[in-house]
Amino acid sequence: MNVTGIINPSAGYARAVDEGGALHNQAHALEHRGDFAGAEALFLRAIDVKEQGLGPGNKFTANSQNALAELYLKLERLDEAEDMLKRALHIRKVTGTAFDAAVTRENLGQLYEMKNMLSEAKDIRLEGAAAGAMACGNYHVWVTLCFVLEESDSPRFMAADWKERHKKFCNKAKAKV
Questions:
Q1: Residues 6+ apart with CB under 8 A from 114
Q2: Is the domain of 162 the same as that of 125?
């Protein structure tokens, strides 16, 4: 496991990690309870605290931006979601893990599908393909979802996507069970 840390962080950095992380977690709890307005307010505060203490280009800031964008997607506030996802992706490409960037690209793919921009959805998802850094659209659902997916259950675009991108990964997951 590769762990990087900061020895003797500044007070601002430590506060941003501690308080920003707590606000982020509280926002998730509110979202899961259905208090979307409260969750949005806390995600925005978490982003503000993290940007002040860690800087706008920090991977922890991007984590909260991505989470807020997922909330916006749920609320169908697509323009706000797109802005947050683009900000998060820019950071995650540079400072985050390949998986984090893949998740944000997948979220952008879902957003573009919601806007009926299917070509853009495919392109953003395939951006990480060469490096093997792609996330299933159902990354937040247990891998068992792959057991119930069938080509005939999806529109033609999704069936093609299943064959090209998901099938081999879902089959690997099935083999491990």
A1: 73, 76, 78
A2: no
pTM: 0.75
**Overall number of domains in the chain:** 2
- CB neighbour class for 155 (10 Å; exposed up to 12, middle 13-18, buried from 19): exposed
The C-alpha atoms of residue 147 and residue 144 are separated, in whole angstroms, by 5
Q: Which amino acid is at 85?
A: L
Q: What's the CA gap between 174 and 89, in Å, rounded? A: 30
Tell me whether residue 109 is in a domain.
yes
Q: What is the pLDDT of residue 66?
A: 97
Q: Positive or negative, the Cα torsion across 112, 113, 116, 122? A: positive
